[in-house]
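Let's practice the habit of predicting before peeking. Look at the sequence and jot down your guess about where helices and strands might fall. Then scroll down.
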Amino acid sequence: MKDKIANVTKWILYILLAFVTLLGLLFYVHVLSVGSYISLSILLLLFGVVIMIVSPVYGFISHPKNALKLLASLVLLVVIVIISYSLAGNQFSALRLEEMKTTAQVSKLVGMGLYATYSLFGIAVLAVIFSFVIKPFK
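Done guessing? Here is the structure:
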């Protein structure tokens, strides 16, 4: 049953990829109007969000032990975001913020995003190195 669901999902995603490619091609050769392109893009985004929500729920039902790993990953992500937010700050003066048409809070959120991205990239690199080093010993 699991292989059948994986196979069906794979083909649905291939069809979705072909549809998105065709949609982009039609837009760039000016066959599809901007309004139609945006409407179809919103539908595809909603479809992707539904898949993104349904897939983990199905995974929880079929493999409840993996839910703990996901929960640990989410907790780690929240901790990284909180640390990134606490490290981020507004580096701009009030005049510069007004010139950029932004606020101190937005500046801090951008800094948080940068710190979180750097941290997650570093963790990903360390995980690749760790898996490369530990693989011969297994």
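How did you do? The chain has five helices and no strands.
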